[in-house]
Amino acid sequence: MTKKFTKDHEWVQVDGDVATIGVTDFAQSQLGDVVFVELPEAGRELAQGKEAAVVESVKAASDVYAPVSGTVVEANQALVDDPSMVNSAAEGEGWFFKIQLKDASELDALMDEAAYKAFVEESH
Amino acid sequence: MRYLPLTEADRQSMLEAVRATSVEDLFRDVPKSARLAGPIGGLPNHMGELEVERLLGSMAAKNMPAGSVPSFLGAGAYRHHVPATVDHLVQRGEFLTAYTPYQPEVSQGTLQVLFEFQTQVALLTGMDVANASMYDGATSCAEAVMMANRITRRKKAILSGGLHPHYRDVTTTDARFIGFEAVALPAAPTGGEDLLALVDDKTACVVVQNPDVFGHVRDYTDLAAACQAKGALLIVVVTEALSLGLLTPPGDMGADIVAAEGQSFGNALNFGGPYVGLFTVKDKYVRQMPGRLCGETVDADGRRGFVLTLSTREQHIRREKATSNICTNSGLCALAFSIHVSLLGEAGITQLAQLNHAKAVQMADKLAAVPGVEVLNDGFFNEFTAKLPKPAAAVVEELAKRRILGGVPVSRLYPGEMEDLLLVAVTETNTDADMDAFAAALTEVLA
Amino acid sequence: MSMNNQGRPSAIPAGAVSFDGVTGTVTGNRGLQIEEPLIFEQDSAGRTGVDLPDVPKVASRLGAVKPRAKVGLPGLAEPQVVRHYTRLSQKNYAIDSGFYPLGSCTMKHNPRLNEKMARLPGFSDVHPLQPVSTVQGALELMDQLAHWLKTLTGMAAVTLAPAAGAHGEMCGIMAIRAAHEAKGDSGRTKILVPESAHGTNPATAAACGYSVDSIPATADGRVDLEALKAKLGPDVAGLMLTNPNTCGLFERDIVEIADAVHEAGGYFYCDGANFNAIVGRVRPADLGIDVMHINLHKTFSTPHGGGGPGSGPVVFAESLAPYIPVPYVTHGKDGFALVENAGDGLAFGRMKAFHGQMGMFVRALSYMLSHGADGLWQASGDAVLNANYVMARLEDMMTASFEGPCMHECLFDDRFLKGTGVTTLDMAKALIDEGFHPMTMYFPLVVHGALLIEPTETESKASLDQFVEALRALAERAKSGDVAYFQAAPRLTPRRRLDETAAARKPVLRWTPPVVAEAVAAE
């Protein structure tokens, strides 16, 4: 199980050929109280770097991009019902959606945890 | 100048404080070639109140106020009696001169009004949720179509031939520039459209009007269900909001979105504006709605209060991804609407709607008795279409010379078409004498 | 020792019961601040605030549709309705009662003469579809307003149709698109918009099917001319620029900007939201602008009304003049005529049900006539002087984002609050307790924690001095580390800070009858 990060503050955790995707704890701290999420429906094809979901706080709306290409297999319905889970458990229960990986090599270009930490510290 | 509080002494001391030699000096970033040397040419200098009143008063005097003569005009704008209370309250400076309620602690008045307005509009249309108003009914209609496009991810709208042609034109103008398809059916003065046959898997919505532009009242229950079965939404347009006091509301017929004109309540004719667009939807579509929304919450002390909410849909946050670019709405017109509806209440609104309908029935009978005139409607609310033996536009001009505003010629709305048709609207403001005068004058003009 | 037990007690008795945990009063009212329930909570069945004639007894003719059973509206008598709205009004801040330093919103005095004129029956009681022969005065008024707007901007044509500023933007961008299409030029897919733009600009461009390309600002708060030139090309339909810009600065390079845009075959759209700074002194046409909307509810004093109605006429240079929406007024052989249908002309369509916001046209013309050419010259001069004065009086205590002179508004950022724990929002909320409406906050986005102040020309020096003193004292207090004071503000308003998170998470957007509400809760 490897966990990777993007510069747009998404995390992706791979288990076999299924990747679980969410936004990072740093991202939720910048967003403030999350009030709404819009997730992709199962079966939707996502291309790497394209808009996949929306996360909204009272004063901001952000797009969540697909860190890797693939087909959506599941969206986190519990998160739709209780968007505050993004704030309480961004990198756990507050995951957004799972996709069936199309090209695992796309993961290679993403950051590991240490690199992401350094990236956040450097740019903020 | 009566609107400028700075004195010459103030200006001098302020210029010293800002270390400038003159006011002109503060404009030094403007390219010299574009700076005027003094007050602009070609316009008069300032005037006192008296002079302005005289000048504008003389222009106003060249018009024929609808209330000064028997008047039967409708077609999307209706002359109703507005209680004195409405304009008195609307002119309170705390409403009139307040800004948009983005700072809720200093705007609870406007916000509570909007919350009540939203509730009144939702109740009247029989829908779940209303927004805090749009510019007018026509822009509401176009926004409803774009919202249906977003919800269904389809890009075709079918516009009934009973839809007000100005509403149709605003929608097709948006279609051209925003990039969706709007299929407008030919005018249908006697109905008989098969809208459902045009619904395919690319159709986002069907737009109908009730009562339609020719005054026909229809039940769209079956159409709503059939559209939804094909994955399309039904949008119902209402141009005479008072009809909602009497007729089965669009929500009960299964409409997905209602786009209406609210001018009939609290707002004067104003030669076409400002009016107030009403916009209501089913609960599940709230986040795709355009425009401002007011919601209930609590303050730091736990007391009930109101705020603008779900604003992430809007342009000031989403910028190029907003659901609409709408910013300003019709706040004060919505307030006038709300006060009038509050005064009417359940009993008043029902009686007022019945009164309008009964008077229209009487007028229809009187006109049908004029030789050569035929009333085309079986069912109507307070407006109907009459077929004349002569071109309606010329008849209306003749009637105006006799100081009667005798309806809207259909050809005004559809140039070159249906020249013998006349739209006649009747409201509580029309007396029996008005109606008799109209029938008599029409008899004379047609003779 | 004798005790005088008569007269007013001098201290609050120890045992005073706080009936209402917040206000200490039984009713929850606080003197002149009176609590007011929803209109729906004051219902009594059958009661009404109108007396109507009896309904004539005729057979109804509703066709296939049944009369509805009930609407569900509450019944109140007239005195209750009057009191309801009067009490609600007293919970609002308003330009009539105080100063609104709202940047880019131009909250100036709303003259009551304008209201009186708009209510003349010859304007207010005229139907939009009356025979043209009966509305010659209304058309004359529209024609006069058009003349003023064209003269003040130096432009060739104007449409009065758009209902508000954002609606005017749509109209302007549609005209640009129509003009490119008429030339057969379909390769232009982009609109350039500076980072500092008002949110409606990118929203409008995107709504009209253009992609939005953002232009960076220079260190002195203006458009980066070189960056702009680098982005211009055959794929650019036009530029949308606010001038004076949203940092309150005049774009010094505007003529070069216009030339560059034109050279690349694009059109130059100017957002006229800040026209108040230059009205009567600078004509936008002389700056190379092709199309601009004008907010009558900003520059020309028509009331904001708690969020509308506005009015957003659009002026066009010769190049775009044929591409306007219907309707418009022309001079015919029998007086004024109204063109309501595009016919074979180049008019691109229709924006609104009827002829535009007539009620606002009357108010705006009433304002223009009152000021005249000389008054407008003085008004824009005073607006700019007032803003520079506020900036000069605050720049030692707060951090101005850019060097002046500014135009009609001045921009500060939150560097002066660094390390204090106090935010821009906190400052604004504390300002409310001092009796002022907050300034525009967190806009424009190009500086951190923006505080944008626009005094307008209708504030007196005394009013500005009081505002400046209040802000200086608050800045001092923030720097002294009194964070708690700010976080609890406002304290003196009808409601304190409201829970916007709760409102957005579980939206309650209408009143529901208690019975239904209980049933829903029980589900």
Spatial order of the strands forming the largest sheet of chain A: 1-2-3-9-8-5
Q: Order of SSEs of chain B, N→C?
A: HHHHHEHEHEEHEHEEEEHHEEHEHEH
Considering DSSP H and I runs of 4 or more, what fraction of the residues of chain A is helical?
Answer: 10-25%
Oligomer: heterotrimer
Termini gap of chain A: 28 Å
Major beta sheet, strand line-up of chain B: 1-7-6-5-4-2-3
**Structural class by helix and strand composition of chain B:** alpha/beta
Indicate the low-confidence ranges of chain A by residue numbers: none
- Provide mean pLDDT of chain B, rounded: 96
Q: What is the C-alpha radius of gyration of chain A, as a whole number of Å?
A: 13 Å
Q: Let me know the number of strands of chain B.
A: 13
Radius of gyration of chain B, Cα only, in angstroms? 25 Å
What's the rounded overall pLDDT mean of chain A? Answer: 90
Percent helix of chain B? 25-40%
Largest interface: B-C, 213 and 211 residues
Number of helices of chain B: 14
- What is the molecular shape of chain A? globular
SSE sequence of chain A, one letter per element: EEEHEEEEEHHEH
Task: Summarize the structure in words.
- Chain A has about 120 residues and is of the alpha+beta class.
- Chain A is about 20% helix and about 35% strand.
- Chain A has four helices and nine strands.
- Chain A has helices at about 25-30, 75-80, 85-90, 115-124, and strands at about 1-5, 10-15, 20-25, 35-40, 45, 50-55, 60-65, 70-75, 95-100.
- In chain A, the strands form two sheets. A six-stranded antiparallel sheet of chain A has the order 1-2-3-9-8-5.
- The longest helix of chain A has 11 residues, at about 115-125.
- With about 450 residues, chain B is α/β, with parallel strands linked by helices.
- Chain B has helices spanning about 10-15, 50-60, 85-90, 95, 110-125, 135-150, 165-180, 220-230, 250-255, 315-320, 330-370, 390-400, 410-415, 430-445; strands at about 130, 155-160, 180-185, 205-210, 235-240, 255-260, 275-280, 295-300, 305-310, 375, 385, 410, 420-425.
- In chain B, the strands form three sheets. In chain B, strands 1-7-6-5-4-2-3 form a seven-stranded mixed sheet, sandwiched between helices.
- In chain B, helix 3 (about 85-90) packs antiparallel against helix 11 (about 330-370), helix 5 (about 110-125) packs parallel to helix 11 (about 330-370) and helix 11 crosses helix 14.
- The longest helix of chain B has about 40 residues, at about 330-370.
- The radius of gyration of chain B is 25 Å and the shape is globular.
- In chain B, about 65% of the residues are buried.
- Chain C has about 525 residues and is an alpha/beta fold.
- In chain C, the strands form three sheets. A seven-stranded mixed sheet of chain C has the order 1-7-6-5-4-2-3, sandwiched between helices. Chain C has a four-stranded antiparallel sheet with strand order 10-11-13-12, covered by helices on one side. Chain C has a two-stranded antiparallel sheet with strand order 8-9.
- In chain C, helix 2 (about 110-120) runs antiparallel to helix 9 (about 360-395), helix 5 packs parallel to helix 6 (about 200-205) and helix 9 crosses helix 11 (about 460-480).
- The longest helix of chain C is centred in the last third of the chain and has 37 residues, at about 360-395.
- Chain C is globular, with a radius of gyration of 27 Å.
- At the B-C interface, helix 1, helix 2, helix 3, helix 4 and helix 5 of B face helix 1, helix 2, helix 3, helix 4 and helix 5 of C.
